[in-house]
Specification:
The chain has 409 residues and is an alpha/beta fold. It has one domain: TIM Barrel. It is 33% helix and 12% strand. The protein has a nine-stranded mixed beta sheet. Helix 3 packs parallel to helix 4 and helix 8 runs parallel beside helix 13. The protein starts with 16 loop residues before the first helix and ends with a helix. InterPro entries: Aldolase_TIM, rSAM, rSAM_sf, rSAM_SPASM_FxsB, Sulphatase_maturase_rSAM. This is FxsB family cyclophane-forming radical SAM/SPASM peptide maturase. Keywords: Iron, Iron-sulfur, Metal-binding, S-adenosyl-L-methionine.
Length: 409
């Protein structure tokens, strides 16, 4: 009887980190820290990557981060900033639903972090929330402590409530919309970080965009639903000719790009334009820039990107924690090194792709396949090819017209 061959997963079973370091490949320090202050949520969204995906680690996590753990987190971030002379750090208070930890706890954490950071390191602290628990106490705390609120909203009531319901099955659009209207007021705009929208390809793209614009947010961040080759996202079928996400995003791009003065920042399209014009991007999901992200769970354990929870149970765990280990201990983890390799960390198909410098292989979590790991193109590869190709043609046509007007050849 033949024994089944052992699986070889990339990068954990393949990447030779000591050899890379010996060859002069240096790590890039972390600059963005996702801090899970609460491991439970007051909603039951059907696509949630924490509770509805492959990982079950949240069940063993403390519901709320303790004050002692928060102190260790702040000290470790400050230590990392000082060791690497970081000019700034970005800290995202996350969950679950972070506001379940309470405004006083969140404000105290931000205040303590800024006290411990080197005077030369600025801190941007954001709360990523579903919005339903934002009240006057939260807004007051955000103003006093310089925190900003990023709010998740997927479209109008019919679209949003299809996915984002509370534990009783009730829609949450009305509560979230009321908060966004408050954040649009002049006295609160300083604490608004914008809207996070997960794309639903069954919704009308221009109606969704118009609805999100009605709240006058400073930015709208469109996200592709988390999925991979083993657990495909909605509408993403094997046929490469089917590109529902590109088809959804292209009309939004046209509307935004064609506006005389774009009314809102759309980081997805801004990054794409920067890369097409030879610039860089700060996002890991486009361009293939090195990952600078670390995650801390409520019990103080250090994790890789929490988006890897969609891959397999435990895919984001590292065995390190803030009590025993500095953030530097993660920099040699294969899951971090792989996301800092640039083109060398991509599969052969991606390395030879004509849009590789813009796509960068797409989001790392979208490349996973259960039998072999992350050395694959993004599951959204056809959509990314179509979208980038379309935006490239639009930009090239504009540049050609500009050269013609200037008499250039």
């Amino acid at each position: 009887m033949k024994r089944a061959a052992a699986r070889t997963l990339w990068p954990d079973d393949v990447l030779d980190v000591p050899a890379l370091r010996a060859a002069g490949r240096r790590p890039v320090p972390f600059q963005e820290f996702v801090v899970k202050v609460h491991s439970r949520c007051n909603l039951a969204c059907d696509y949630c990557y924490v509770y509805q995906a492959a990982d079950r680690g949240w069940r063993a996590q403390p519901h709320v981060m303790s004050h002692g753990t928060a102190e260790h987190v702040c000290r470790r971030i400050a230590e990392h900033a000082e060791r690497h002379a970081l000019p700034s750090v970005r800290v995202i208070l996350h969950g679950g639903e972070p506001l379940l930890a309470g405004a006083e706890f969140l404000g105290g954490l931000a205040r303590r972090l800024r006290t411990l950071l080197p005077v030369s390191t600025a801190a941007e602290v954001t709360i990523q929330t579903n919005g339903t628990l934002v009240d006057e106490a939260v807004l007051t705390m955000c103003h006093e402590q310089g925190l900003r609120l990023g709010v998740s909203l997927d479209g109008d009531a019919a679209v949003h409530d299809r996915h984002r319901r509370d534990a009783g099955g009730r829609g949450t659009h009305a509560r979230t919309a009321a908060v966004l209207h408050r954040l649009a007021r002049p006295e609160h705009r300083a604490v608004s970080a914008g809207i996070l929208c997960t794309v639903d390809v069954t919704a009308d793209p221009l109606a969704t965009y118009a609805h999100l614009l009605s709240y006058r947010p400073p930015a709208i961040r469109f996200l592709l639903p988390l999925g991979n080759w083993t657990h495909r996202p909605p509408g993403r079928v094997p046929d490469a000719r089917v590109t529902p996400y590109a088809d959804w995003l292209i009309p939004v791009f046209d509307q935004w790009y064609g506006s005389p003065a774009p009314p809102v920042r759309l980081p997805l399209f801004e990054s794409m334009l920067d890369l097409l014009l030879g610039g860089a991007t700060s996002t890991e999901s486009l361009g293939g820039g090195p990952s600078r992200l670390a995650v801390v769970d409520t019990d103080g354990t250090l994790a890789l990107s929490d988006h890897l929870k969609t891959a397999a149970d435990g895919a984001d765990r590292t065995g390190h924690d803030v009590f025993s280990d500095p953030f530097d201990s993660l920099l040699d983890h294969p899951g971090v090194v792989a996301r800092q390799l640039g083109p060398e960390g991509l599969c052969a198909q991606c390395r030879g792709c004509p849009v590789r410098t813009v796509c960068g292989g797409g989001h790392y979590a979208h490349r996973y396949r259960a039998d072999s790991g992350y050395l694959h193109p993004s599951v959204y590869c056809p959509d990314l090819m179509d979208l980038i190709g379309y935006v490239s043609r639009v930009v090239r046509a504009d540049l050609d017209r500009l050269r013609t007007r200037r008499g250039e050849h």
